[in-house]
Amino acid sequence: MLGKKKKLKIEFVSRIKGVADMFPVLEASQYKRKWVKTAMANYKENHKEMQKKTHVVRCPGIFSLLNKGYILTSWFDVVIPPIDAQLDNVVKWIPKRDGQIKTLVKINSPLNVIAPKGVKLLYLPIPYPDQFDFDCSMGILDPAESMELNVQLNWYKEDGEVMIKAGTPLAHLIPLYDGE
């Protein structure tokens, strides 16, 4: 028998009062990228000439991804200074992209996830971001094992400091459902 699939409730709560209110985990569709606004304006301005041409705003694959899941943001301003490579038994085995520093930067978050049994979160880098100094390491969080929404960042800037302002997107979280 076919029926509507019930949407399982996922909650994000904070161990520090007010953080979840000031810097909530966003539905992905709420996060607005600067480049998307510019591309949309270009398309609206030129859509008559572009009827038979391809434009990024007409790509369903990109925009379906941008609107799936949740966006975890930084809950505080943090300055990351130049980083020395420190090899340890975790990061030395993980493949690196060109330009990626060997050290991972861990951002501890006071946010936790409460999810129904069988729901896990796939951690992904922010797709099509506005900045490129860092991206999130990929992995799966099983709230049955740990509820903490911490982020491991791959770092790409060797020289100079980088300010990550409160509210900066850090990770794209996509729910994975076991079973049906």
Describe the overall structure.
With 180 residues, the protein is α+β, with helices and mostly antiparallel strands. It has 3 helices and 12 strands, in the order E-H-E-H-H-E-E-E-E-E-E-E-E-E-E. The chain has helices at residues 19-22, 34-46, 60-66; strands spanning 11-14, 26-27, 70-73, 78-80, 104-107, 111-114, 119-124, 134-136, 139-141, 151-155, 162-164, 169-177. It is globular, with a radius of gyration of 19 Å.
What features would you highlight for this structure?
180 residues; alpha+beta; five-stranded antiparallel β-sheet; three-stranded antiparallel β-sheet; 3 helices; 12 strands; globular
Structural class, from helix and strand content? alpha+beta
**Cα-atom radius of gyration:** 19 Å
Low-confidence stretches: none
Chain-averaged pLDDT: 88
Overall body shape: globular
Task: Calculate the terminal CA-CA distance, rounded to whole Å.
Answer: 13 Å
The H-and-E topology, N to C, reads as EHEHHEEEEEEEEEE
The level of helicity is 10-25%
For the largest beta-sheet, the strand count, sense and barrel status come to: 5 strands, antiparallel
Widest β-sheet, arrangement of strands: 2-3-12-7-9
Number of strands: 12
Please indicate the percent range of residues in DSSP E strands (runs of 2 or more): 25-35%
Number of helices: 3
Summary of the model, kept short:
The chain has 180 residues and is an alpha+beta fold. The chain is built from three helices and twelve strands.
